[in-house]
Design a protein that fits this description.
14 helices; 6-stranded antiparallel beta sheet; alpha+beta; Dna Ligase, domain 1; binds guanosine-5'-diphosphate; binds manganese (II) ion; D-amino Acid Aminotransferase, Chain A, domain 1
C-alpha cells in the first residue's frame, strides 16, 4: 500500500528524519494559510499523488510570493498531473504539500527495500540522486551502492558510515547521515514497509542533510497489525475495481489485456495468466476468488471483471477441492441470469463433482464454451477472440 509524500514525511519526522517544514492543503485558501503559517518568503508547492516523476511533470513548483502559492495551487488542485510514471491520463490532484523552500547544494539518493534474493532489508544509496536516478541505475549501476542488513543485528552504525562515505559525504554529514539512516530503518521495520525512498536526500544551505522527498510503500499483508498505517490509505489513488474486490474478499489486480480471468487460488490464477500469454493472449486481470468461491463470490467476480471495458471474453478456471463443481456451475448460471453479460465465457472445471458441473451448465441454455483442461481453455479463448475480430 502506497501513501502520500506528506504522510511519509510526517511518519519519518516522528522517527527523527529531518524533513522540511510543511503541511498539506486541500484547497487554495488553505494553501495560502499554510504558507503564511510557515513563514519565510519562498515555498514549494507539491502535488500529492501516488506517482513519482512529479518534478518532470510540473507537479513541483517554486512560489516566490503568497500570490504564487495561490495560483500554483489553483493550477494543480483539480488538474490531472501527467508524469513519466502516471500513464497518459495522469492522476487527479486533490491536495498539495506546501513547504518552506530550501536551497539545495547537492542531491543524493537513499532508499530501503526488502531484497527478495537475500531476504534482507537492503539499503540503496547513490551520490547521483535527484530526478534522473532511474537513468543512473540503468546506465551506470556501479554508481548505486547496496548494503544488506542482518535482521538479528539491525542496521549497524558502521554500515551507515560506510555507505555515507561511499556516496561522498564528509565530516559531520557522515554522523548525520548515519542517524538519518537508522531512523529510516526503524520506521521501515516497525511499520512493515516494503520500500522507503528519500530522493533527493539533499545537502542544503549550511551543510545539513534534509529529506526533500519521501515515498513509502507498505506490505498489504501486514496491514491488519498496523492500524496507524491503514488509516493513511487513500482510496482515490486506487483502482475502484480493486477496492471493491477487497471488500468482497476477492484478490483482484487490474491489467491491460482483454481476457478477463476468474479463478480460484492464486497459483492457479498465475498459471491461467501464463497459459493465456503462452497462446498469444493478454490477461485483463488477475483474480483469485479464494478457496470458498460461493455463488455470491462468483457473481461479484463477474461484476468486477465486467467493469473493465477492455474485457472481450472471460475465462473461468475453477479447481474444486473443498468446493464442488456443481455449486460453482450453479453460481455461474445465477450470475448469467442476474447480470448482463455480453461477452463469451469459456469455462474449465476440474475436481470434486466435475461430472455434475458440466450438465448443469449445458442444461442452463446459456452459451458457455466448455474446455477440458487449461491448455484447451486458453486455445478456445484465442479461437473465439479471432472469430470475433
Ligand atoms: P518527484 O519528481 O516526484 O520525485 O518530486 P521531488 O519531491 O523529488 O521534487 C523534484 C525536484 O524538485 C527535486 O529533485 C528537487 O531538485 C526539486 N525540489 C523540491 N523541493 C525543493 C526545494 O525546496 N528547493 C529546491 N531548490 N528544489 C526543490
Ligand atoms: Mn523525488
Amino acid at each position: 500500500m502506497n501513501i502520500h509524500e506528506y504522510q511519509a514525511k510526517e511518519l519519518l519526522k516522528n522517527y527523527g528524519v529531518p524533513v522540511p517544514d510543511g503541511r498539506v492543503a486541500h484547497n487554495v485558501d488553505n494553501a495560502v494559510a499554510v504558507a503564511e503559517g510557515l513563514g519565510g518568503d519562498r515555498w514549494i508547492v507539491k502535488a500529492q499523488i501516488h506517482a513519482g516523476g512529479r518534478g518532470k511533470g510540473g507537479g513541483v513548483k517554486l512560489a516566490s510570493s503568497l500570490d504564487d502559492v495561490r495560483s500554483l495551487t489553483d493550477q494543480m488542485i483539480g488538474s490531472h498531473l501527467v508524469t513519466p510514471q502516471t500513464g497518459k491520463d495522469g492522476r487527479l490532484v486533490q491536495r498539495v504539500l506546501i513547504e518552506q523552500a530550501c536551497d539545495i547544494q547537492q542531491e543524493y539518493y537513499l532508499g530501503m527495500i526488502i531484497d527478495r534474493a537475500s531476504q534482507r532489508i537492503t539499503v540503496i544509496a547513490s551520490a547521483s540522486g535527484g530526478m534522473d536516478i532511474e537513468e543512473v541505475a540503468r546506465t551506470s549501476p556501479e554508481k548505486v551502492i547496496h548494503e544488506a542488513v542482518d535482521p538479528a543485528a539491525g542496521l549497524m552504525s558502521f554500515q551507515c558510515r560506510k555507505i555515507a562515505a561511499k556516496i561522498g559525504l564528509k565530516g559531520k554529514q557522515i554522523g548525520e547521515a548515519a542517524k538519518l539512516m537508522q531512523a529510516l530503518y526503524r520506521a521501515f521495520r516497525d511499520k512493515d514497509a516494503l520500500l522507503a525512498e528519500i530522493n533527493p536526500l539533499a545537502i542544503v544551505n549550511g551543510g545539513s542533510l534534509l529529506a526533500v522527498d519521501a515515498k513509502m510503500n507498505f506490505d498489504g499483508n501486514a496491514l491488519y497489525r498496523r492500524p496507524q498505517i491503514t488509516e493513511l490509505r487513500d482510496f482515490d489513488e486506487e483502482d475502484p475495481k480493486e477496492v471493491e474486490a477487497t471488500g468482497h474478499g476477492l484478490n483482484y489486480i487490474a491489467l491491460d489485456g482483454n481476457v478477463g480471468c476468474i479463478v480460484n487460488g492464486a497459483g492457479l490464477a498465475m498459471a491461467t495468466m501464463d497459459a493465456i500469454s503462452f497462446h498469444g493472449g493478454k490477461p485483463a486481470n488477475f483474480l483469485d476468488v479464494g478457496g470458498g468461491a460461493s455463488p455470491e463470490k462468483v457473481g461479484n467476480a463477474f461484476r468486477i471483471v465486467l467493469q473493465d471495458p477492455n474485457v472481450k471474453i472471460i475465462l473461468v478456471n475453477i479447481f474444486a477441492g473443498i468446493n464442488r463443481c456443481d455449486w460453482i456451475a450453479e453460481g455461474l448460471v445465477q450470475a448469467m441470469r442476474d447480470l448482463e453479460i455480453n461477452v463469451p465465457i469459456v469455462v474449465r472445471l476440474a475436481g470434486t463433482n466435475v461430472e455434475l458441473g458440466g450438465p448443469i451448465l449445458a442444461a442452463s441454455g446459456f452459451p458457455f464454451i466448455m474446455a477440458d483442461n487449461l491448455d484447451d481453455a486458453a486455445t478456445r479463448v484465442m479461437k473465439t477472440l479471432e472469430a470475433q475480430s
